């Protein structure tokens, strides 16, 4: 049984799916950013075994695998059928389902990736338990979400903000996600990322247009900023990698 807020989330995600396809992932500068971002996640995810793209949306990670001619067994799950229709066009096997009650057996995935999903959920604790349940012992979860930095106040200037986000959507403090995940999994890596380049990666929400060359320069600058103590905490996003203890640990 879905709550009112989840129904609102589904309605919004069904509507914005077309803008993901036509703008976010297909304007050249933002596409460049999201290829870099997906590759960053894939680099933390061993390329063997069966992976779940949790909240797969329109199947962007699958699209990057196709663009880069990489083989990987990936299944997508999402609560929005509108999003999944686009993912299916990329030959991604998909399942309609809720991250808080996943329709999969225990231990059937080698890992889970979730790009920009945990901060959309009404119950992050249930999703953390579900991620841990469906991963095999020794398997890995790679989660990326927006960081609750002081710069987030700028979100109020976003075009179509209310059309784009349900009342469930929020930025989260890394510690809030870490606390949920470490109840089940061992955190093995944590990084901040995204400073100057990140805001230009969402032309469907913030109409910033820059050249691909400028985007590349900003990505490289951001990589340096993400290593500077204190300043890195102002990054727009963070990536958390965690492993399920092997049996007997
Ligand atoms: C910001 S979008 C990210 C989509 C995709 N990962 C990407 O990076 O393009 C968040 C996604 O989470 C999905 N989502 C929200 N709540 C969910 C839930 N409870 N279970 C599964 N998916 C959910 C939305 O439908 C949407 O596709």
Written account of the structure:
This protein is α/β, with parallel strands linked by helices and 249 residues long. The chain has one domain: Vaccinia Virus protein VP39 (Rossmann fold, 3-Layer(aba) Sandwich). 37% of the residues lie in helices and 19% in strands. It is built from 8 helices and 7 strands. It has helices at 4-24, 28-43, 60-67, 81-89, 124-134, 161-164, 174-181, 212-225, and strands spanning 50-54, 73-78, 94-96, 109-115, 135-146, 186-193, 237-243. Strands 3-2-1-4-5-7-6 form a 7-stranded mixed sheet, sandwiched between helices. β2, α4 (81-89) and β3 (94-96) form a beta-alpha-beta unit. The longest helix has 21 residues, at 4-24. It starts with a helix and ends in a 6-residue tail after the last strand. S-adenosylmethionine (SAM) is lined by residues 9, 13, 20, 55-57, 60, 78-80, 83, 98-100, 115-117, 120-121. The site of S-adenosylmethionine (SAM) has 19 residues, from α1.
Keyword list:
7 strands; globular; 249 residues; 7-stranded mixed β-sheet; alpha/beta; Rossmann fold
The computed structural class is alpha/beta
What's the CATH first level?
Answer: Alpha Beta
Total helical elements: 8
Tell me the number of structural domains. 1
Shape: globular
Q: Widest sheet: strand order?
A: 3-2-1-4-5-7-6
Terminal Cα span: 36 Å
Q: Approximately what portion of the residues adopt beta-strand conformation?
A: 15-25%
Q: Count all strands and give the number.
A: 7
């Amino acid at each position: 049984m879905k709550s009112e807020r989840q129904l609102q989330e589904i309605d919004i995600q069904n509507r914005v799916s077309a803008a993901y396809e036509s703008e976010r992932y297909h304007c050249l500068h933002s596409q460049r950013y999201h290829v870099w971002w997906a590759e960053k996640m894939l680099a933390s995810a061993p390329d063997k075994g069966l992976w779940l793209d949790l909240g797969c949306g329109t199947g962007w990670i699958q699209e990057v695998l196709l663009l880069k001619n990489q083989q990987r067994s990936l299944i997508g799950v999402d609560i929005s059928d509108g999003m999944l229709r686009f993912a299916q066009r990329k030959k991604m096997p998909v399942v309609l389902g809720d991250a808080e009650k996943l329709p999969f057996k225990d231990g059937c995935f080698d890992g889970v990736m979730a790009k920009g999903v945990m901060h959309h959920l009404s119950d992050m604790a249930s999703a953390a338990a579900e991620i841990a349940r469906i991963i095999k012992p020794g398997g890995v979860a790679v989660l990326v979400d927006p960081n609750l930095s002081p710069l987030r106040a700028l979100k109020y200037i976003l075009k179509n903000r209310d059309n784009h986000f349900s009342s469930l959507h929020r930025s989260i403090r890394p510690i809030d996600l870490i606390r949920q995940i470490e109840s089940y999994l061992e955190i093995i890596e944590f990084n901040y990322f995204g400073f100057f380049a990140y805001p230009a990666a969402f032309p469907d929400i913030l109409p910033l247009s820059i050249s691909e060359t400028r985007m590349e320069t900003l990505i490289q600058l951001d990589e340096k900023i993400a290593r500077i103590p204190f300043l890195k905490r102002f990054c727009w996003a963070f990536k958390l990698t965690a492993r399920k203890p092997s049996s007997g640990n």
